[in-house]
User: Fold this.
Amino acid sequence: MSELDKQAIEILNKNDRGGYTVPTARLYPYQWNWDSAFVALGFCAFDRQRAWQELAFLLEGQWHNGMIPSIIFRSDDPDYFPGPSVWQTQSACATPPSIPSTGISQPPVLASIVLSMVKAGNESDLQNAAALFDGILNWHRWYQSKRLSPVSGTVVTVHPWETGRDNCPDWELGLSTMQVDPQLEAYERQDTKHVNPQQRPSKLQYDKYLSMVKFGRERAWEHELITANGPFVMADPGIHFILLRANKDLLELAGLLERTDVVTEIEAFIQQGIDTTNYFWNESVGAFTARNVVNGEYSHGVTSASALCFYAGAGTEAQWQRTVENLDRIAGRVQYMLPSWDPDADDFDPQRYWCGPVWPQMNYLLSIGLEEQGQSLLADRIRQDMSRLIQRSGFWECFNPISGEGCIGTDFSWTAAIWLAWASPSKQEMAA
Ligand code: GLC
Assistant:
């Protein structure tokens, strides 16, 4: 075991709050949805039971309507804003969730991670997966109904924080067609006290993020209403491709668990995802991009989510070819692949939250997809670059794609987990 392997284990243990793991102390003091799924992969390297426990804790936060929220508030930590008193799920919802949480979700990577844990495991892993199966299926049902837009025909998102790519320039489209709620209460941010404000979202963006929360709260967190009439409704290729892949993986899991009763239903979800993939195709950019559902407008740059088409196995040969050309172009602009936003766009910023930095969990998903679809060179480069970044700078939240410096949070759980599960050279030797 290398020194970095040991450090990664220490980080996961240090961020463990007794059954669930915080992404990093202080800046993110709660359990986050997709972070926990990646964290489970990391725990698998040294404690499989603890890995399953992480996921069981995540499912404890599931809502009655099936949604698994983006953040579960098991306490009220003054270090974090906006916390439970802003989301008000317990007082606003007709049927409140058992644990306070946000009123939005996050990218549904869970089914895919559970499947990979089962494939690498034994009979007891299969039993653990069986215990989670219905919860995960209910979450997919929620996405496929409560987040289905009659306008685009796709699954959509109603808040940039739901996409997990919180401050990507993609969301400027949806932010530009909405107003700050004139009745928005005064508030005090905490994030800019913990990290460099230059790397965090602006005040106007934050006002709009909180206006969306206010809208949801005032509609008792009735998700169908928010999807139909919310101030911000966008289609995200990240959620679309991750959900499509997760549905395929859930179907495989159903097969392993002999759940023939749900096969037809999951097959229909997959077909719906395949049929609507073209909505995201942006001919002028030559990639799948986000769109503002309100007016149909497309985003103007290639993101790391664009390249998840390979991971979902969705799109035509010609679309994949143009996406690869874009990835080759980007590879010529940066030292470390794959930046979260197009380095040729005006608003590219290599240090700013989702406007440029490389994110470990995205590289993991991207590399899997590219490898599966025969793009081994790009898949290897993305994996090697992640490995080099961590060796150069340590376990940061994300990294500058040009200089390799770490950005925002330190001692970060998903970076440690991705290292242990996939980026560590010792892991790569084992996989070879
Ligand atoms: C940031 C990221 C989001 C992540 C969270 C916790 O908000 O944008 O994807 O889940 O931090 O790490």
